[in-house]
Amino acid sequence: MSASTKPRVAFIGTGGTIASIGAGPFDTLDYAATGQMMQADEILTRFPEVQDWADVVPVRFRAVPSPNIAFPEWKELVLLCDRLVAEEPGLAGIVIGHGTATLEETAYALNLTLKVPVPVVLVGSQRPASALSSDAGMNLANAIRVAACPDARGLGVLTLLNDEIMAAREVTKTSTFRLQTFRSPDFGALGHADGDAVAFYRRPLRRAAPDTEFDIRALDALPRVDIAYAYAGSDGTAVRAFLAAGAKGIVSAGFAPGFCGPGDAEPLQEAAKRGVVVVQSTRAGSGRTFRTTKLRQQGFLVADNLTPQKARILLSLALTVTQDPHEITRIFREY
Questions:
Q1: Residue 286 region, left (φ>0) first, then alpha (ψ -120 to 50), else beta?
Q2: What is the per-residue pLDDT across 256-273, written as a single tens digit (0 to 9) for each?
Q3: pLDDT (tens digit, 9 = 90+) per residue, 61-97?
Q4: Can you give the residue ranges of the Asparaginase/glutaminase C-terminal domain (predicted)?
Q5: What are phi and psi of 289, to 5 degrees?
Q6: What amino acid positions are annotated as catalytic residues?
Q7: Coil, strand, or helix at residue 158?
Q8: Residue 218 buriedness (CB in 10 A; 0-12 / 13-18 / 19+)
Q9: Is 13 left (phi over 0), alpha (psi -120 to 50) or beta?
Q10: Regarding beta strands 164-167 and 172-173, do their DSSP bridges make them parallel or antiparallel, or are they unpaired?
Q11: Is the pLDDT of residue 2 over 60?
Q12: CB 63, CB 13: distance < 8 Å
């Protein structure tokens, strides 16, 4: 592919395993101890082959573990993507390198808040760039191919790891170290980035960027929303602490198919009476919750099939536009 025909793709580096350098080729677990993490341009220098697929423009942003990335960084990324599209005429797509620990949360947050028309693909790796048989280089090359693919437009934010293209709303990390860790338990992959082609097989139906009602570009923070995790013997202590901290919403990560433990029920009901929005999800990792008679009586809403961490993001954003339970119910139904 000649330089004149190659699509132009921006690559934003935020750090994570894909940017990490371990102590040696067999250091696949404790590589963070070296403290070495590359910026976007340094990653491209390490994997120059990715330029075969596109004219890749490196964009420095962060070089941090992904648990360090939250709302302030999401807002910066939204603004950065705005700027890149404005300043790079003909930009085909954007790839964001990211640590895998919170990749799904950043992907979903951006899926709800980005306003750019080009595909945005989040990519990470399970093994550091320095490891023998690292997945970093191939994942990055395939993410660039997906971002440049016309078929990726209109699908919302995507993720690419292990050759699999996933929708931001549906994907979750399911294994600590295995390369096939990112899965969409209920619905599976949207497609694959194979050696001969980027192939899509289905489209997400829920609302996604850029056509959403959420705009965080002028916000200083999101309303506080916490997650109360159910376990045998949970007694509401966490819920009371969240209320004391000023939570505007609480996601109950309940038992499957979707109910909190008896010790959490009373403080969660008290929260709902105070006007705190309580959304019932499940800790199961897949499957829908639905609004039973009991949940209606308790005043709880439901998260559909969103994981607790994604329900938290959607509820936080919903609270920036409404506090009406009927409207929040609509938002969970549409997104």
A1: beta
A2: 999 999 999 999 999 999
A3: 999 999 999 999 999 999 999 999 999 989 999 999 9
A4: 224-332
A5: -105, 150
A6: 17
A7: strand
A8: exposed
A9: beta
A10: unpaired
A11: no
A12: yes
Sheet holding 301-302, edge to edge: 225-229, 249-254, 277-282, 301-302
When pLDDT is cut at 50, 70 and 90, the band that residue 5 belongs to is: confident
118 token code pair: 């080009």
- Give the residue carrying structure tokens 């969660």: 268
How do beta strands 164-167 and 191-193 pair? Answer: antiparallel
Q: Which residues of 48-78 are buried (b: 16+ CB within 10 A; e: fewer)?
A: eebbebbbbbbbebbbebbeebebebbbebb
Do the bridges between strand 120-123 and strand 91-97 make them parallel or antiparallel, or are there none, so unpaired? parallel
Output the six-digit token pair for 215: 């705009």
* pLDDT tens digit sequence for 42-63: 999 999 999 999 999 999 999 9
